[in-house]
Amino acid sequence: MFLAGKRALVTGSTSGIGLAIARSLAAEGATLILNGFGDAAVIVELCEELGATHSGADLTDPAQIAAMMDAAGEIDILVNNAGMQHVAPVEDFPVEKWDTIIALNLTAAFHTTRLAVPAMKRKGWGRIINTASAHSKVASPFKAAYNSAKHGLDGFTKTIALELAEHGVTANCVSPGYVWTPLVESQIPDTMKARGLTREQVINDVLLVKQATKKFVQPEEIGALVAFLCRDEAQNVNGANWSVDGGWTAE
Ligand code: NAD
């Protein structure tokens, strides 16, 4: 239980990858603050399972982020994970979708980080882990906002890694390939439309085509990596962008 006594906030942790990260950190003794949307009864069950509290803050709203951070108190481990996707050709890309995706997938991490860093510096220990994506390193068509936000998140992470390096605080990205979660499932209809493909073709010829293992990544694999990055043995892993993509970005 190497995280006993540490407080961890994982954004977007009511589902998918964030929930697996929260479970992995809780299993090592961290006190969890969950964030995200979902069925109220399910969220109550998750809080009971993990001994966690929950913030329903909408992270596209800086005022709600500030209120969440204020209520959370001093955070030792900050995982910026909440994110969303929209798939459309650039000329048809809805302007409000662009704004929302940049706000959630990129700007929210700036706000949580700027508010969490003073306590981390004071304590001389902290971990900031940002869920980026293979799309922080390479692009796919029809994902203009997502690719831009994730590339930006990589740059933001490197910047704070350098700023915080002498304060015992590390900042890294974890970059999954395709993980079977609601975020991936929900983009299949728009991808079918944008590319004129069937559901099976989208899964095999778009999603898994570049993932050399031809397998979806499991959320628990990301949870295990995030827990490793919180270890003292990972104190020199800083400013990295760690791929978990079955070899996609090795090509
Ligand atoms: P998901 O849809 O299962 O979970 C998203 C989480 O974010 C949920 O808890 C949801 O309630 C929360 N959320 C959504 N909008 C929010 C808002 N405005 N404010 C606060 N919380 C909000 O998705 P996932 O696949 O688990 O994705 C998690 C992260 O992993 C995202 O940043 C995503 O870009 C990234 N990622 C996912 C994949 C994949 O294949 N699934 C691959 C690479 C990166």
Automatic annotation (TrEMBL):
EC number: 1.1.1.30
Cited InterPro entries: 3-OHbutyrate_DH, NAD(P)-bd_dom_sf, Sc_DH/Rdtase_CS, SDR, SDR_fam
GO biological process: monocarboxylic acid metabolic process
An MF annotation (GO) of this entry: 3-hydroxybutyrate dehydrogenase activity
Alphabetical keyword list: Oxidoreductase
Enzyme class: oxidoreductase
Family designation: Belongs to the short-chain dehydrogenases/reductases (SDR) family.
NCBIfam families, alphabetized: PHB_DH, PRK12429.1
Protein name according to UniProt: 3-hydroxybutyrate dehydrogenase
